[in-house]
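Example 4.3 (complexes with small molecules)
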Amino acid sequence: MADKPSHDQERENVMNHLANSVLELSDEELLAEAEGAATQQAERTRAVLLGTARLLETVNQQLLSLGHTISPQRWQQHADRGYRNHCLTCGFAVSLTPAGEIWGNALEARCPQAERSTVRKRTASAG
Ligand SMILES: [Zn+2]
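Answer. The structure with zinc ion bound is encoded below.
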């Protein structure tokens, strides 16, 4: 038998130590700890939402300049990676994450439907 405690034994010792230190805290101390954590979480969430709102504004402007039509209400949660939207006229997609990653074919080309409708209008006015 080895003299060193096994990893399981060490883990159990750590867990017991943590449990004991939590048990030694007063109700007030526990509440204060929980409130502090909740406040920090709320501040973090607020910062993420604010960042996402600014990012959406930037992406919407970029898509508009390429002739795409994006409905700001149509951003949908996309897997675990963030949000996705589609151009209402051509269907090209754009995706973004709250971390600031932006990708999708809508950002790589002008809206083909917008180009076509411009050509159609020109043809109609000429003939
Ligand atoms: Zn489009």
